[in-house]
Amino acid sequence: MAALALLLLSLVQAEASLDAQAYADVLSQPTEEKEAFVEGVVTKTLHGFVLSDSSLQDFAEHAPPTYDLLVGQLKIQPWICGGDTGRLCSAPATAPLNAQGWQGVYSDPASRLIFARRVAMERLDKEVVNATELEAWARTAPQDFETALGELKDAPFLCSWPCPDQEVPGMEGGMTESQRRQVFVGELAFACLCLLVALLVLIAGAMVYADRRGASKHAEGVASKKKDLEEIIERRLREERNVEHQAALRAMAQKMVPMQSQVASASAQPMGYGYMPAQGYYSAQGSAMPMPPVSRAPERCTRHRTLQADHPL
Ligand SMILES: *[C@@H]1O[C@H](CO)[C@@H](O)[C@H](O)[C@H]1NC(C)=O
Question: What is the largest CA-CA distance in the chain?
């Protein structure tokens, strides 16, 4: 609301005074007010027309510092026509895109075409799809500007950006049928190549996986076989040891038989050596062994004698 009020105020001011003093005041104010002031100078002081609002806005943003400079620069701006500017508004390239401009160019079909193209692009934001049809339309265009504008709005030879069917040179739409087929074949080949590469990668991966699994299985097999072999070897060794043991036992038993018989014959004979109380130590050879200095034998005898003395038979 405040902005609107300011704008109205500035419009009133612009209407009221378009002199150097007012311009000096307006210079320190926002762009919209400068824009309104500049437009006022164009239409009321120079009696011209503004052809482009965006150009006016650009100019107002970088407005010259003095009123004289402003008027001087406005006279040579390409976006202004008519009045004191020296550029004819009836020129189709510069005529204002309104009823007045349309009437200025209407007498010449070529000028109508140029003007219609500008209306389509600058006022309706459309692009020309078929220049031939636009040219045909311009040749028989209605004289009333509003009617012409309405026809251009719905014209099939114009489209709103981005135009889906518009043929832009160098793009896919501008290709011939054979070119399109070639591109399709190329794309197909590329897709096939991608598929092939993916397949190869998949196969390689599967092979590596299988190889790893096989290797681990093989390692397991080898380990279990080694264990089996070790067990077999151990069993064999144990058996062998057993056999040796048995053989040794048998050999010992065989050796034992003559020893036993010897022992038996030896026990039948009087001991090779011994101790007799009367004789002392003797050997099988019959020779008395020298008596060891033992005090026990006489003691025992004494005792025997003592017993006999106590209990006379
Ligand atoms: C433009 O329109 C004319 C007439 O309708 C047609 O013959 C021509 O092929 C069109 N051109 C393009 C590029 O569409």
Answer: 192
Identify the CA nearest to 79 among candidates 96, 104, 64: 96
pLDDT tens by residue, 175-187: 667 777 888 888 9
Name the amino acid, one letter, at 108. Answer: D
- Confidence check: pLDDT of 233 > 80: yes
Nearest residue CA, atom 12 of ligand 1?
A: 130
User: Tens digits of per-residue pLDDT, 34-64?
Assistant: 999 999 999 999 988 887 888 999 999 999 9
Q: How is residue 91 annotated by DSSP?
A: S
Q: For residue 133, which atom of ligand 1 is closest to its CA?
A: 2
Domain extent listing, the chain: 12-87, 88-164, 175-248
Percentage with pLDDT > 70 across the chain: 73
Q: What is the mean pLDDT of residues 193-221?
A: 90
User: How confident is the model at residue 16, as a pLDDT?
Assistant: 61
Determine if the pTM surpasses 0.70.
no
Query: What's the token pair of residue 37?
Result: 């002031």
Residue 137 burial (10 A CB sphere; 0-12, 13-18, 19+): buried
Instruction: Name the token pair of 147.
Output: 């009617």
CA of 131 to the centre of ligand 1 (A): 8
Query: Best mutation site among 127, 128, 129, 133 for ligand 1, i.e. most ligand atoms within 8 A of its Cβ?
Result: 133
- The CA–CA distances, whole Å, from 35 to 70, 73, 97, 112, 188 equal 12, 15, 19, 30, 58
**Cα 281 to chain centroid, rounded:** 111
Q: Could you tell me if 49 and 41 are in contact, meaning their C-beta atoms sit under 8 angstroms apart?
A: no
